[in-house]
Amino acid sequence: MLSRCTVLLAAAALSIVAVGYPLLYAPQEAEAAYSCSGKQIYPPQNLTNVAAGSPAGTTFCIHDGTYSVSNPVRVQNNDKFIGLYNDSSRPQIVTTQAQQLFNAGGSNGATIKGLKVSGAVGGDSCKPGCGQGIRGGDHLTVYDVWVTNNKNQGIGGAGPGLLVQNSIIDHNGSYAFTSNPDVNSSAGIKTTNSITVLNSKIYDNYWNGVWCDEQCGALTVKGSTLTGNGKAGIHYEISTGPAVIAGNTIKGNGTLARANAHDGLLIVSSAHVDAYNNTFGGNVGYGAMVKDDSRWPSVSDVDIHDNTMNLDGLLGCLLSGVNCFGNK
After folding, report:
1. What is the C-alpha to C-alpha distance for residues 93 and 328, in angstroms, rounded to an integer?
2. pTM for this one?
């Protein structure tokens, strides 16, 4: 016999399909309540203080409700912050004062799961390392997290090995973090280190959706939807990869008039990219654009193939080192 939890999850997934969302996104909208053995946290406990007073490697079982913080929650090695809920909401970590909600800088192997993270503040005086929902961390896992309405980046400044899975990243960024072209930083996710994004929704962020920059290394974006981002859905810049961008829906990006590009997939001065089996459409500029400027590395070993373009254009296919084939 099916458990009540199983039945409720199945019903939630079917209701999402019924209103037009693909089944792929059922886990993002209504995850099961997770089992959690560790330090039990309930509103209105101060999560910042609880984390600061706990040793590295603590599991924090965060029960449903709203947790307001005025300073970042400090993340240490192998910490686990696990939100516990059994409906379509998540426990909320919110702020009107803190420059980050979670600061994982200097940590390794931590996990943030099943939470909503919103409200990080900042502007000219503290950019680019402020206004971030989640900041820093090596081999950080972000799973089933809704990161929204942070002034600069939903997730930023991470070390190598960032994994974002089954998550929603939306409405992050603002003019304050793009006003100076030399220090533009707004994004749903921005990193200069390796990152994997799986089965996630990244939409309506002020500047870029996913931005891998400054020799970020390996980039993988698979099975995700990137829509309505102001500049590009995915921006891969001055990096040597390898990058694999596959099985995504990349539509309607480039909505911000003042942006200097308006594309679904933007590849600039980068190498070793394989982009295939993506579905484009309705991007304001090009579906995919490859550009070589004066920065190292020169464009090379870029394959854009077997994508469904839906009348979106491809630019840069005639550059040396770029191969476009099988796109329709």
Report:
1. 43
2. 0.89
